[in-house]
Amino acid sequence: MSTVSDGWYDTTELIARLPAPSASLRGVLSTKGPNGREVPTSIPLHHAVALAASACARSRGAKRFKTVYEHVRALGDRQREFVVVLRSGKPPEVVPADGFVATAAIVLDLADLERAVRAGDVISH
């Protein structure tokens, strides 16, 4: 695990552990700066979990993987309380993990993704 400081993660190292093309993930993180598009060198935990969820969605063929990033990032410190449900042809849904009933869809458990990000594990999808 490559933490820059408490709760912050090295962007390059994190992207290397994720299952989506690095160019796609850099595109999710990039912002417009004085020198063009820039990717931060480090990101806080809730952004790292959101990026991991986005990468997993992208690796499974989701077209709206940037939307996954935005929705998960907006959860902040409450991410571990939710799952992301990806159904073909529908927008991603963020639903409470407590009481969630398995369904015919791709389900991303954000608590599992947070543990993997913190541990420095490779996240396959």
Overview in brief:
By secondary structure, the chain is an alpha+beta fold.
Protein described:
The protein has 125 residues and is an alpha+beta fold. The chain has one domain (8-119). It is 39% helix and 22% strand. It contains five helices and eight strands; from the N terminus they run E-E-H-H-E-E-E-H-H-E-E-E-H. The strands form three sheets. The chain has a three-stranded antiparallel sheet with strand order 1-2-5. The chain has a three-stranded antiparallel sheet with strand order 7-6-8. Strands 3-4 form a two-stranded antiparallel sheet. A hairpin with a 2-residue loop joins strand 3 (31-33) and strand 4. Helix 3 packs antiparallel against helix 4 and helix 3 crosses helix 5. The longest helix is centred in the middle third of the chain and has 15 residues, at 45-59. The radius of gyration is 14 Å and the shape is globular. The mean pLDDT is 93.
- As laid out across the biggest beta sheet, the strand order is 1-2-5
C-alpha geometry: globular
Which range best describes the helical content: under 10%, 10-25%, 25-40%, 40-55%, 55-70% or over 70%?
25-40%
Listing every helix as H and every strand as E from the N terminus to the C terminus, the arrangement reads EEHHEEEHHEEEH
Keywords:
single chain; about 120 residues; alpha+beta; 3-stranded antiparallel beta sheet; 5 helices
Topology:
Elements: E1 3-5, E2 8-10, H1 11-16, H2 22-29, E3 31-33, E4 36-38, E5 42-44, H3 45-59, H4 65-74, E6 82-86, E7 93-96, E8 106-109, H5 110-119
Antiparallel strand pairs: 1-2, 2-5, 3-4, 6-7, 6-8
Helix pairs in contact: 3-4, 3-5
